Amino acid sequence: MISRREFLSLAAAFSAIAVLPAGSFAANKAKVVVIGGGVGGSTFAKYLRRKAPDVDITIIEQNPIYIRPYGSSEVLTGHIDMSDLEVNYDALRNKYDVNVVIDRAIGLDANRQIIKTASGTEYAYDRLVVSPGIELNYEKVEGYSKELAETKAPSGWIPGPQTSLLRDQIQNMRQGGTMLIVAPPNPYRCPPGPYERGALVAEWMQKHNPTGKVIITDPKNKFTAGSNFLLGWNRLYGYNIPMEFMDGMPDDVVEHSTPGMIDWIPGKDGGTPLSFDASNMSVETEGGKIEADVINIVPPMKAGKIAQQFGLTNELGWCPVDRVTFESQKIANVHVLGDASIADAMPKSGFAANTQAKVAAYAIAHLLAGETPEQNPAFENTCYALAGSDYGFFVSAVYELREGKIAKREAPGLQDLNATQAQRRLSAVYQQAWMKSFTEDSFA
Amino acid sequence: MKKVMILSALLLSTSAFADERAEIMANNCTGCHGTDGVVEDSALISIAGLNAEIFIETMKNFQSNERSSTIMHNVALALSDEEIAAMAKYFEALPKGEEK
Ligand SMILES: Cc1cc2nc3c(=O)[nH]c(=O)nc-3n(C[C@H](O)[C@H](O)[C@H](O)COP(=O)(O)OP(=O)(O)OC[C@H]3O[C@@H](n4cnc5c(N)ncnc54)[C@H](O)[C@@H]3O)c2cc1C
After folding, report:
1. CA R_g for chain B
2. What CATH code would you report for A138-299?
3. Which amino acid residue places its CA nearest to atom 34 of ligand 1?
4. Taking a contact as any Cβ pair under 8 Å apart, which residues of chain A between 410 and 439 contact chain B?
5. Tell me, which fold does domain B2-99 have in CATH?
6. Which residues contact A368 (CB under 8 A, 6 or more apart)?
7. A180-211 tens-digit pLDDT
8. For residue range A28-69, what is the model confidence (pLDDT) as tens digits?
9. pTM for the whole thing?
10. Per-domain boundaries in chain A
């Protein structure tokens, strides 16, 4: 914390510094300020340092330890602990000479190019990078609220206390109880996430609550890697695949005579959620009321709140950006990365945030040096997903710019439905290995 | 420390952006295969220092499924021959993990 007097003198010092013209960083260091030390912000800072050894880089992050969202559903089944999600900023500070400040950004003066934080400090920037992740719009589900998510029906889509509450609720559920997952509308963070979570809980139930059940109610009629999930659920949890998804399914698909442990209700069958009733633990859907012992609601979402406050979002709540530099189309010299940005065909995933951050880091290194960035960048997304701890698959794609938008290159994007058991198992092995190698590439 | 940084900035300014596109493409690999193609204690393999011809042949075999894979079949099919060759050259020049 700094005192008011220190703050005033700091503020005076800042206003005395003239904003540096681009290209002058030999004498006076250019200043880059990053809001959010998650996947996007941290990868950006690390890769900018590798390109621009002489730039002043500050990350403003509200939490001293990052709790990674990717892999966080594994906490629910006890596969990993909450502490296994923790990532520290030691390498960014010590190896990459990044000034990581634990504070919350609260204000932007876009004319003077200054960021204000909750502690009262001001940071001048030549380029500002905002990677604040998402804000969950709990109130978009009638009867639901942040308070209810923290006490009764957790969302757990930004990991933290809601994740451990959900874990405890699942593990203490009565035998034969039901967990209801309410899936969100598009677009949202981690498209396969709600379905992977349902599968992992079903697998846990096979051991610990064999008469338990998972229901996923959904406003959508299809979802990412849907066929791979439905096939995995058929093989592992007695799920019956709807006719319209049978195209291309392998021969071993079984028609089960009893209801399986997992059920998915798409929008066309009444899955669209209407309201949550906390007093009798039920969700009203277009198809009727569903009561459950544990209710996990993944509400609609928008760009992180600070992006909205700064005026970086469009009417739908996401941030339009230039696809080469990720500079905001709303405010000059401000760039937006990761889940908060509009990246066209790219999903809101950690891998996407990581490759966007690298492209933006190179572009900003050029801009600070008064040069033109590479105009033909490429991005990638790879997300391994699980239907069971030994049963994996993936989505993958390479992206390029086409007419100013990010477009997916023509190539298969999913694991083949006829993949062998060894390939399924390997995907699960790589999913676990990726958690570590990806965290290292982003933060260390 | 500071002197070293300024010196490396000078060195970088002459060469670093020369073949930037290959580097940007290669950065898409490192989210799994580690920064600069080096990953330690992992089921995923390091690709730094890999002989360029072997890199290219392996990608071809991923494309044709001659070599069985998980995501690499799809990723290899999404890349052009020139891109694969440029990435092969880029990774070949990087030091292997133990040499770093
Ligand atoms: C259950 C689940 C599973 C997932 N699995 C995968 C997966 O397998 N693969 C994959 O690629 N992705 C996965 N993801 C998605 C991935 O975690 C996100 O897409 C990624 O974290 C987005 O990065 P980001 O930088 O946009 O946001 P974040 O990583 O959320 O970082 C945002 C940071 O900004 C900080 N912040 C926000 N506002 C302020 C402020 N005003 N001041 C200071 N700091 C602020 C936050 O504290 C946070 O640290 C998963 C997500 C979930 C929920």
Report:
1. 15
2. 3.50.50.60
3. A36
4. 410-415, 420, 422-423, 426-427, 429-430, 432-434, 436-438
5. Cytochrome Bc1 Complex; Chain D, domain 2 (1.10.760)
6. A22, A23, A25, A30, A32, A52, A55, A126, A127
7. 999 999 999 999 999 999 999 999 999 999 99
8. 899 999 999 999 999 999 999 999 999 999 999 999 999 999
9. 0.93
10. 4-135+302-375, 138-299
